């Protein structure tokens, strides 16, 4: 569904609520030319207590942390961005939605150095269903290992959610889709598993759970952290600082992606090699079920993870 088909009409930009179609920037904006922006992606869920943003504080903390390597000064406090986001959701009467805060160097000059370019900040929110499709949550997806490698942390900060870095994700994802797959898996420069284009990856073997460590050039995903917490609370042993070879993808009992957009999505094939028995495995299913019980507030546990609208 395109934006024009959605019932959304407002965006918050630099302290003001503006009409959706008036949320414009200049064609010579620094961030457009050099990818000098940072962003977040969070979900607001429809719960019995009303709309609730999942782990908003953690998303905002990462937002401000992402700005630091680029010496980007965001002129609004976390409290101001929170109030703007809550009001944006209220104004559009959104029961559930995806939230996209973004900050970027704006229009002033066009040297590679941002110089005196101002930092522009905006927040949008719109209804967005399951990222990889409703069927994917139950039946899983087919993925391929991309020929594109993930950039290393020695080249560019991999713990910052930077707009320009997602060209790498776009190339990997589109390569997969051209070849008939739903998504890609990207390897790091050493040839070990890093992550998906917009997701972290988990592997299940002999009832234990493994996920690449932060040293593997991955983003420190908030849903990744959530799943680690939930899995440990369910009694699973989680190894969250390991290297996973490409070959281990083919011998895993289960594989699944996590992310704010992808939530918890099983993987049924890698490069046409069937994972496990080719369906959502029992460990993935239990973690996925628990995740949705939490975000839809069917349990009173983990209430501290929610910002109610």
UniProtKB/TrEMBL annotation:
Keyword entries, A-Z: Amino-acid biosynthesis, Aminotransferase, Branched-chain amino acid biosynthesis, Pyridoxal phosphate, Transferase
GO biological process: isoleucine biosynthetic process; L-leucine biosynthetic process; L-valine biosynthetic process
MF annotations from Gene Ontology: L-isoleucine-2-oxoglutarate transaminase activity; L-leucine-2-oxoglutarate transaminase activity; L-valine-2-oxoglutarate transaminase activity
Short name of any one Pfam family annotated for the protein: Aminotran_4
Pathway(s) annotated for this protein in UniProt: Amino-acid biosynthesis; L-isoleucine biosynthesis; L-isoleucine from 2-oxobutanoate: step 4/4; Amino-acid biosynthesis; L-leucine biosynthesis; L-leucine from 3-methyl-2-oxobutanoate: step 4/4; Amino-acid biosynthesis; L-valine biosynthesis; L-valine from pyruvate: step 4/4
Cofactor(s) the protein requires to work: pyridoxal 5'-phosphate
Catalysed conversion reaction: L-leucine + 2-oxoglutarate = 4-methyl-2-oxopentanoate + L-glutamate; L-isoleucine + 2-oxoglutarate = (S)-3-methyl-2-oxopentanoate + L-glutamate; L-valine + 2-oxoglutarate = 3-methyl-2-oxobutanoate + L-glutamate
SUPFAM superfamilies linked to this entry: D-aminoacid aminotransferase-like PLP-dependent enzymes
Domain of life according to the entry: Archaea
EC number: 2.6.1.42
PANTHER family linked: AMINO-ACID AMINOTRANSFERASE, AMINODEOXYCHORISMATE LYASE
Cited function: Acts on leucine, isoleucine and valine.
Family: Belongs to the class-IV pyridoxal-phosphate-dependent aminotransferase family.
Name of the protein: Branched-chain-amino-acid aminotransferase
Species name: Halobiforma nitratireducens JCM 10879
Gene name of this polypeptide: ilvE
């Amino acid at each position: 569904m395109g934006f024009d088909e959605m019932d959304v009409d407002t965006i918050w930009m630099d302290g003001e609520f503006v009409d959706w179609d008036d949320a414009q920037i200049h064609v010579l904006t620094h961030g457009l030319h050099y990818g000098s922006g940072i962003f977040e992606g969070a979900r607001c869920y429809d719960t019995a207590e009303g709309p609730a943003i999942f782990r908003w504080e953690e998303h905002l903390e990462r937002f401000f942390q992402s700005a630091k390597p680029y010496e980007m000064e965001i002129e609004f406090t976390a409290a101001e961005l929170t109030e703007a986001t809550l009001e944006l959701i209220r104004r559009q009467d959104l029961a559930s939605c995806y939230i996209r805060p973004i900050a970027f160097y704006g229009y002033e000059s066009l040297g590679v150095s941002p110089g005196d370019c101002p930092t522009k900040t905006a927040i949008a929110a719109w209804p967005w269903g399951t990222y990889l499709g409703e069927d994917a949550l139950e039946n899983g997806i087919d993925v391929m290992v991309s020929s594109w490698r993930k950039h290393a942390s020695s080249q560019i900060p991999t713990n910052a959610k930077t707009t320009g870095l997602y060209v790498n994700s776009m190339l990997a994802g589109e390569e997969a889709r051209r070849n008939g797959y739903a998504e890609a898996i990207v390897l790091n420069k050493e040839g070990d598993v890093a992550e998906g284009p917009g997701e972290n990856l988990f592997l299940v073997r002999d009832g234990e759970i493994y996920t690449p460590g932060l040293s593997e050039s991955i983003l420190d995903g908030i849903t990744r952290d959530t799943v680690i917490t939930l899995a440990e609370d369910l009694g699973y042993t989680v190894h969250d600082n390991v290297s996973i070879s490409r070959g281990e993808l083919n011998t895993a009992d289960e594989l699944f992606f996590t992310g704010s957009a992808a939530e918890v999505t099983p993987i049924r094939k890698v490069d046409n090699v069937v994972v496990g028995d080719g369906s959502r495995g029992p460990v993935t299913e239990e973690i996925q079920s628990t995740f949705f019980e939490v975000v839809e507030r069917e349990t009173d546990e983990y209430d501290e993870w929610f910002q109610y609208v």
